[in-house]
Each structure stands twice: as C-alpha cells, then as structure tokens.
C-alpha cells in the first residue's frame, strides 16, 4: 500500500538517507529501528511531505505522493505523530483534537470523531489545557489527534520515548489495535524490544541506509540485532 523506492534526502550538502526502500502493507505494523541520528525522523518527514525527497519515489496505492505538501498527504490518508507529541500548549485537549480534523471528510464529523477517539483514551479530559498534561497524556492526545484525520497509515516517531513503562504498554496496546480499524502503522523506535514485540516486520536503518529487514521473529534472532541493539 505504501511503497518507498530508492529515496535519498539531503540537508544542504549532507546526505541523510541513501536509496531507502521500504514497504507497508494493508493492516500491517512495520517497525523502523535505528540509533540516534540514523535518519528515522528524516524518513517520516519525507513520507509526510515535511521535507523534500532528492531522488527516488514514494507511492500510496500506486500513486506518487512525494512532492505534495504535508496537508495534502494528510488528506490522502497518512497521519504523522511527531516526536514528543508537539501539542499546542495553550489549547485544550479538545482544541488540539479539532486541529487534527482539518481534512474535509473528517471536519464534517469532528464532534463524532472526538467522542470516538476519547473512547480509546477514556481518562483524557476535553477541557484540560495541553500544557498541564503529563508526558503520557500528551502522547495519547497526539495519537488521538493523528486519528482525527481518519488516516489509513499512521507514522509514529518514538512514541515510547521518555514514558514510564506502564504508559508505554498503554500506548503500544493502542498501536497494536490500529490494524483492526483498517489502519497500517510505521513505528519508529530506538527501543528494539518494544518495536519488535508490536510489529509484524521491521527494517534497521544505520547511517541513512537500510542494512537489514525481515519479520520480527527473524530479526530478533539476527546477530546484528542481538549485538548492536539488545546488548547480548
Ligand atoms: N534540519 C536538519 N539540518 C541538517 N541536518 C539534519 C537536520 N535534521 C536532521 N539532520 C541530520 O540528519 C541525520 C538524521 O537525523 P534524524 O532523521 O533526526 O535521525 P533519527 O531520527 O534517526 O535520530 C543526523 O545526522 C542529523 O544530524
Ligand atoms: Mg528522530
């Protein structure tokens, strides 16, 4: 459904991605694993149109989407939940959620949708200001805001980062449930254990290059993953 072929990205003269190829199928959870600076966020930004691809192509259901601005990509069904959630601090939970509903199809039904997403996170309060939320609640509102656009693919950038284990479990439970709603997932993680528990398949990114790919059980048994990422 999402097909990334030979994508390269430069920041000025510095090359951040080298001929990256990646696939996401219908109702699939795919992990993208890599150390700090590997290029994971860069790839998510390239998919969501935040930065330009220098070469290569990104297709959604056979249609090129690289080159489109971020709001168009959201309308085409790809939601990007950025690192740390990035909420509007002075706005309430409800206002932050409404901002996620700007694609026309979602806007018409936004009140209905807000009720739907709040059912997934029952302890969030609509009127609470974003700046007063805990880290875990911020991440949950960010996920809920992403879901407000009625996406078919969700891109998560290190959703477990900085959260207490019990909150991580809650976030992962929600991510794991998305394929049942017809939503595919690209899960960026530094935490390999968490990522491969949740994902069907995974890719390992090192210095801007995909160096390994496979299904989660296979990957957990490779020497590279054991040595470099699990410290075994
Ligand atoms: N806006 C930018 N300008 C220049 N270099 C950048 C920029 N953003 C990221 N980089 C560089 O690109 C590389 C990949 O970064 P990033 O995609 O953020 O990695 P990751 O998310 O895997 O930690 C790093 O070397 C980083 O320093
Ligand atoms: Mg990053």
Describe the global form: globular
Rg calculated over all Cα atoms: 17 Å
Bound molecules: adenosine-5'-diphosphate, magnesium ion
Can you identify the CATH superfamily?
A: P-loop containing nucleotide triphosphate hydrolases
Could you report the average pLDDT, rounded to the nearest whole number? 94
How many strands appear in the DSSP assignment?
10
Q: State the domain count.
A: 1
Q: Please, could you describe this protein's structure?
A:
With 232 residues, the chain is α/β, with parallel strands linked by helices. It has one domain: 3-Layer(aba) Sandwich (Rossmann fold), CATH 3.40.50.300. The chain is 35% helix and 27% strand. It contains ten helices and ten strands. Strands 6-7-8-3-9-10 form a six-stranded mixed beta sheet, with helices on both faces. Strand 7 (153-157), helix 7 and strand 8 form a beta-alpha-beta unit. The chain starts with a strand and ends with a helix. The structure holds adenosine-5'-diphosphate and magnesium ion (MG). The site of adenosine-5'-diphosphate (ADP) has 11 residues, from strand 2 and helix 1.
Topology (elements, then pairings):
Elements: E1 2-11, E2 14-24, E3 29-33, H1 40-47, E4 55-60, E5 63-64, H2 70-75, E6 78-81, H3 93-99, H4 104-107, H5 110-120, H6 135-148, E7 153-157, H7 165-177, E8 184-189, H8 192-198, E9 201-206, E10 209-215, H9 216-220, H10 223-229
Bound molecules: adenosine-5'-diphosphate and magnesium ion (MG).
